[in-house]
Specification:
Three copies of one chain form a homotrimer. With 250 residues, chain A is α/β, with parallel strands linked by helices. Helix content of chain A is 55%, strand content 16%. Chain A has a single domain, classed as 2-enoyl-CoA Hydratase, Chain A, domain 1 (Alpha-Beta Complex). In chain A, strand 2, helix 1 and strand 3 form a beta-alpha-beta unit. Chain A is globular, with a radius of gyration of 17 Å. The interface between A and B is medium-sized, with 31 and 19 residues.
């Protein structure tokens, strides 16, 4: 794996995004995540997974400079893979703990909210689906997941307002389950994963499916259309110009 | 327009119900609202809409004395137009701010909860779907919208209990987003509308659709049956008698 | 009725589970409950129903020792009756108040959360769907009802974590509507039932249907598959062993 650091301790796998300073997500990252999680699903020794990042970011989201070089159809293929991955993560048969070591933005937030439990470090790190700020839409599934944790009202305020949540605010609203200092993040994630993993695996898988599969099925039905509309807006003149400015000015 | 006052300032349209003392909603009011919002949707200069009322009421709801003179089929036609209108409002492609200048009752509440943001004046004004108090049912869509903002538990208590919410209670429960004194209502509504309108219009439209269209589609499927049941109960002996008493005694 | 105590006062029926020390639910209990509620539905003198238990327990749930003697197909038949009953209860056309006189566990909790209002005594009594603790799954409908009152996040924590809620915690989270001392439980349940029952019966029935039937219909579609998966896990080696230990050691 080029962009993932994978380790294992006492039946708990740890998957860390590791790509440059901001762990920007590109197609290779998504391919590697999907492959890695498939393998961990099949691995009978693995009882739970921790998804985290290296450095100061969980991930800042999509690698926009790279995607500005993508043709429409290639971008649609990538987005299909990406949304398939977060939907797979949402109904993953084993516990998945998100250990959010820093900024959790856009595509990063979408992956985080598909996990079973979110632990985040305090301080300046933000969590958001603020795509509207640069004139981009979202995907049907990502909107549903935000609604699931925030409720309709706060989800609307967040996504129509482009809110960058502080960790504390995200915790107060239920988007983050727990805040721990950076030096305790790994230990706390392991403890939480172990707590989930001590349950009977078949019962856990079955109850999690009852809790989440109906929504995942509904997300899948609507995801394709939302990707096509997302792409139309992404390549529109106004949004394309903002994306280029974003790349130049950061 | 006979019963609407329409104005515009800096790309923000203001639509004010203006019909007698309580802004009672009849078929002409609904026809005018539907036509007015269609025109504002097409008007490229309009970036957001404020829906408000004149005088001390947003609206007290349906004009019951007038509807007591309606034959069943005419009432069904009216109710279809009315529920179509609030569903259209709920998925309106531009931001709609409800500036609730006073009592927001029954049909008035149904329109208010279809908007994107609700600002209300403090004091004695109530907001409620209290139809059960005079033995009337509700419409599928209006029930879904109450559930959306209040959650199942508070929505059940409100609609099965006929609760008349004070502004403060409605705010605490999430039915009202903000309380401002009457003299600041117009200015606050304009500021809020401008804040929504500064986002990219295509991204706003797309994200709002993702947030709301699945529920609106579901509402539409069930609205017709709920109207027919509503009408059966409305014209039942017990409810009809209560409606007539309500008209006589206020 | 062998295991139900049924009485009536001023149009309010009181149905009390009465089977041994813990009011364990078996097939006869479910058959009797279904028959009793059908009769009360048809009885024009009955305006509301209180569901409660005798002794220190509302009910501890299924009679596991008895069901360990059931063949798979018989157990499926029982579970179908049981889930049909709580779904029927959830959309019961008259008000149903749960007067929870003590522990409300597993199947007991499933019936309680299908009622319109839950009053519980303070103290040591717990309320929970903690099936995961002995490696059992749940039913689609019961999961939906927990999500309805707790929201997705707290429902997941409860059912994947096997949480035994104290009355106070359940009240704080919205699973319990009111806490009253044991000596006031009956009176408070009667007052609450009377308050619900004073509304127009046709309007109550219609609005309750709008509030709950769409979810009940969805529950029904998915219940059968969930029962089959529940049974597969129930009869699995690991869970079967735990059930037997539970019976021996309590």
């Amino acid at each position: 794996m080029s962009f993932l650091q994978i380790s294992e301790k006492a039946g708990i796998a740890r998957v860390a995004l590791s790509r440059g300073k901001v762990n920007a997500v590109n197609e290779t990252v998504v391919d590697e995540l999907a492959e890695c999680f498939r393998k961990l699903e099949e691995d009978r020794n693995i009882r739970a997974v921790i998804l985290t990042g290296t450095g100061k970011f969980f991930t800042f989201g999509f690698d926009i400079p790279e995607f500005l070089g993508y043709a429409k159809n290639d971008f649609i293929r990538y987005l299909t893979k990406f949304t398939d991955f977060y939907t797979y993560l949402f109904t993953y048969p084993k516990p998945v703990i998100a250990a959010l070591n820093g900024h959790t933005i856009a595509g990063g937030c979408m992956m985080a909210i598909a996990c079973d439990y979110r632990i985040m470090v305090p301080g300046k790190a933000k969590i958001s689906l603020n795509e509207i700020e640069f004139g981009s839409s979202l995907f049907a599934g990502s909107v549903e997941l935000m609604k699931l944790w925030l409720g309709q009202r706060n989800a609307e305020a967040a996504m129509l307002g482009g809110t960058m949540f502080s960790v504390e605010e995200a915790h107060r609203l239920g988007l983050i389950d727990r805040i721990v200092p950076p030096e305790e993040l790994e230990g706390e994630a392991e403890k939480t994963a172990a707590r989930f993993a001590e349950k009977d695996a078949a019962a856990f898988r079955s109850i999690k499916k009852l809790l989440r599969k109906p929504l995942a099925d509904d997300m899948k039905k609507r995801e394709r259309d939302s990707i096509l509309e997302f792409v139309d807006i992404w390549y529109s003149e106004a949004t394309w110009r903002r994306l280029q400015e974003k790349v130049i000015h950061g």
